[in-house]
């Protein structure tokens, strides 16, 4: 397994493959069937420390804690939820007693969690991160990338829902 970016020739081949996939599978908006979905009910991540996670997502990022219950699948474990707008939630489990390793990007795993905020809230959160000395990466003047207390990458994006960097994605 290598741990380096693709060569320019490989990038060209990957772009050609992506173009072929787009041609084969991406239908014009007028030809797409309606989705079966209503949205993401919640995305569940794992927390090593419930209080630290609550303090980060609620107190630093401004997403209110809406529920804290026992995880029905694992006795003693907490399942807790944060309101991220539009009826959507980000949830967490702690799994006491399991010897889980640190966050890692793996196939089928989480690359990052992109949370939409208004431009005004984005600026206020950025100021709060600066005041708290939280490290982050500013990307394209609309995205802030940072790590949560367990290392999961979080993006705060101020583009409107359904857009990315001024382009429609839906």
Automatic annotation (TrEMBL):
Q: Which InterPro entries match?
A: Glyas_Bleomycin-R_OHBP_Dase, Glyas_Fos-R_dOase_dom, GlyoxalaseI/FosfomycinResist, VOC_core
According to the entry, every stretch annotated as the VOC domain falls at 39-170
Question: Which PANTHER family does this entry report, sorted A to Z?
Answer: GLYOXALASE FAMILY PROTEIN, METALLOTHIOL TRANSFERASE FOSB
The protein depicted here goes by the name Glyoxalase
Q: Which residues form a coiled coil?
A: none
Q: Where is this region: Disordered?
A: 22-41
Q: Which Gene3D superfamilies match?
A: 2,3-Dihydroxybiphenyl 1,2-Dioxygenase, domain 1
* Record SUPFAM superfamilies: Glyoxalase/Bleomycin resistance protein/Dihydroxybiphenyl dioxygenase
């Amino acid at each position: 397994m290598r741990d380096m970016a693709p060569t320019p020739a490989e990038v060209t081949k990957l772009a050609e493959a992506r173009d072929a996939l787009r041609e084969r599978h991406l239908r014009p908006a007028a030809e797409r069937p309606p989705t079966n979905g209503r949205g993401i009910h919640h995305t569940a991540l794992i927390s090593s420390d419930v209080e630290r996670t609550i303090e980060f997502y609620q107190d630093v990022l401004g997403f209110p804690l809406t529920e804290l219950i026992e995880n029905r699948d694992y006795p003693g474990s907490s399942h807790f939820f944060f309101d991220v707008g539009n009826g959507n939630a980000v949830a967490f489990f702690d799994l006491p007693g399991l010897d889980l390793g640190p966050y890692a990007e793996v196939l089928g795993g989480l690359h990052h969690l992109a949370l939409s905020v208004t431009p005004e809230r984005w600026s206020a959160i950025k100021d709060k991160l600066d005041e708290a000395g939280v490290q982050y990466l500013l990307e394209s003047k609309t995205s802030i990338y940072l790590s949560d207390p367990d290392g999961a990458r979080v993006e705060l994006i101020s583009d409107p829902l359904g857009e990315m960097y001024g382009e429609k994605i839906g």
